[in-house]
Design a protein that fits this description.
alpha+beta; 6-stranded antiparallel beta sheet; two-stranded antiparallel sheet
Amino acid sequence: VKRQQVDLMQREWVSVFIGLGANLGEARQTLDAAVKAIDKLPHTRVLQCSSFYRSAPVDATGPDYINAVLHLETRLHAYEALKAFQSLENKAGRVRPYRNAPRTLDIDLLLFGDATIQSPVLTVPHLRMRERAFVLKPLAELSPRSVSAQDLQSVQSQAIEKLDASSSDDL
């Protein structure tokens, strides 16, 4: 265990962007709690959270989603981060009965430094991030260079609403 900790301490910090979403239960409170839980992950520190947005489900049915993008740094490898995020989803009651099912918490690894990863369990950059206004608009807040004007133009027809930062009364 000590050897693993030493190895982690020797790793460089990697800049990571993750998408957060929820459309079941108290979605806004769930996302707030997820940000705090992510900040407590080992060798991980949250740098910034975007505004929260409300959007209709894409390729799915159910209540509107509350979404945000989180910028963090970590020394974890991408697969270790994915495992940690999936654990947080499970603790929040996430179940996967079918593709695009409503969710108590969804955490998507969007960008992991400059890495390109393609495996059966992880694709980075996220496969559909350029097709989703609920990813691109909050990502553009935190990292404008990561989102082109063409990207934003391509999703302009998707209904999305930036929420008031001071209140979740309208949820």
